[in-house]
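@channel sequence for tomorrow's demo:
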Amino acid sequence: MVNVTDGFGSSVLGYPRIGAHRELKRALESYWRGTLTRDELIATGRDIQERQFAELAATGLTQVPGNTFSFYDHVLDNALLFGAVPRRFEEERKDLHPLDFYFLMARGRPDLPPLELVRYFGTNYHYRQPELDADTEFSLHPEYLLDEWDRAMARGIELRPVVLGPVSLLLLSKAGHVPGEPEFDTLSLLDRLLPFYEQLFELLAKRGSTCVQLDEPCFTGERSAEELAAFELAYQRLSKAPLRPRILVTGQYGNFGEALRILAQSGVEAIGLDLATYRITPEELAAIPGIRRKRLYAGVISGLNVWRADRYVTLTYLQELAKVCPDLVVSTGTTLLHVPYDVLAEYDIEGNVADRLAFAKQKVGEVVSLAKALTEGPSDRWRKRPTEVHFKQKHAVRQRVYAITPDMRVREPYAARREAQQEALNLPPVPATTLGSFPQTARLRQARHDLGAGKISYAEYRKQVEAEIEATIRLQEDIGLDVLVHGEHERNDMIQYFAELLDGFATTRFGWVQVYGSRCVRPPIVYGDVSRPGPMSVEWTSYAQSLTDRPVKGMVTGPVTMLARSFVRQDQPLYETADQVALAIRDELTDLERAGIKIIQVDEPAIRELLPARPEGRPEYLRWAVAAFRLATSGIRPETQIHTHIGYSGRAEVVQAIEELDADVTAIIATRSIEWVIDALAEDYATGNGLSHGVGPGVYESRSARIPDIDELDELLTAAAKAVGAERLWANPDGGLKTRHYWQLDPSLRNMVAAARRVRRRVLAERAEPVTTGGF
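structure tokens (generated this afternoon):
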């Protein structure tokens, strides 16, 4: 720990871990293919670790975080650190190397589904959800953590190990439930878990560690009195551990709320606040009993966006905070896992925009610079303000937003639309479809690269894409799907593809951010008013439709998801930018309809994901998010069917928001939790308070290699038909199929179609109607 007499400290709460050039991604995929040895993979991981802590120490940070590297997911790492292995994996453990066992839990295999993939606190990141039950026994396995510690100490660098806090570890886990037994609460395991944190503290203290970081992000959201009581109990006990380093507890991703008051009166030495997301005033901070005795990690630099902080405003704020908490460390509000590595690698972003961007390396520099200025005063270099960004404004775009009227967000009543769509589409009961993407071949990815490099013409590229589209259409016809997709072969990513074609967005070449495992994306940057210069998907969807008599869905990303998975300008309210994007998408939908596309899917998974963690912000957020979707989708005729793809939630206000989107069909991300989704849909259906339009609860996890069998899918679809009514039910996987191999998706889709036809036959038999295999 830095001594406050030496000045104000500086640190970050975490750092990107895929490697500056995605070395980890390439190594992982090579290992999974069998072309890289385990020792080579481990060596790659160690090299990334060592370069990271050496580089951070060289920047002048007074504290360097450790244990932030992961071969797949840090939440899974923490579960295994404390021996939390689900019973369904236990038998495999004795026969596998620890790293292969780790990947088995993360990736599964055909006969053993992986841990569920869940979005992490409204970010682009997903974690593998630990599974706990009443019989879970914990144990400590600190070998990887201690190995990194020893390697850093050999270089003279003391790391501050980062560990997921015990209460958040339990809250982020999935509770196993045995039918007929009482509901299981993961927090009931807290007393069983805490001794192993104490054991870890003792091991670290004996090695010379002076500080350990415990992340408790769950407490920046709404929490019950029982959960807050468990939090208080945990830190009363841990702070009294007989031999331990100093404890830093961080509240990332929002307002630490009541947890801050609890920690201020506990025996922990330091508290980290995400002041970039929720800026508490010095007066509010001073009113918290006990806070003046704590070391405050002031997270004034955002780990969630890429805009440079206003250093003058931020320094003034830090000076006021230091009057309340004189033992202050300048820090990031969250880990830097969610931003790219280095903006200096980007050579073709417009200079006025690039000058105001800060990726992970630049954010570390901001932290160090602010701490130095807080200690010594601003240097001469500070006298020159950085170039101001004048966010690009377009008069025509702003005039169009100002001209939006309420009737532009309203379609014909659903009952009238449903009748018109049934007549136009003539679909059978329980139609089978997919949700958009199909695998992209190496040949196609190379063609996209060659087009960008100028090695092939657009005409040559188009021929290759059209060949892939035709192959995808023929495969779907052979499988027996009722509604087809063109496969999205022209798209690099569901966000970036459209961002590259919209004015007001900038895209990066090397701005990769980890989503999970080896999966990375390059979030675009919204720097100006958004408009659509021309059609974006019409060419490819129209070509696909020309190849078949079955309906082909147009596939467009919705306005809220476009913004949620981008780094967005901060000079105007988010709802105003959302309406700009919605108008561009509205134009795209109109062009698709004119081209003869009768079904259009507008994906909006981020509407639920962006839901504010605390209840006071939810009504306003849901109001404008729903309004943006409806603006995008309400400019088409009643007979054109609008689908959306969204995550389901048990929160009543979210279910109501999904209903208010007024999509004709909602595909739900459910994966292996589909049983509780079906139960919730059944309850809603019975009370009349749930979804009243078409529903497609995802009947298998698209991101898993597991191939579901027909009986399993039949059982799920039958339960779903009872829950929502067969006349409203669709059969689909829970997401796109881009990450799958054809040998995986082909049998999975054939089994899904077979199961849908079983259900269809039973429905038609009940109606005493002729049985058909499809609607054509």
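heads up for whoever presents: Confidence is low (pLDDT under 50) at residues 1-5.
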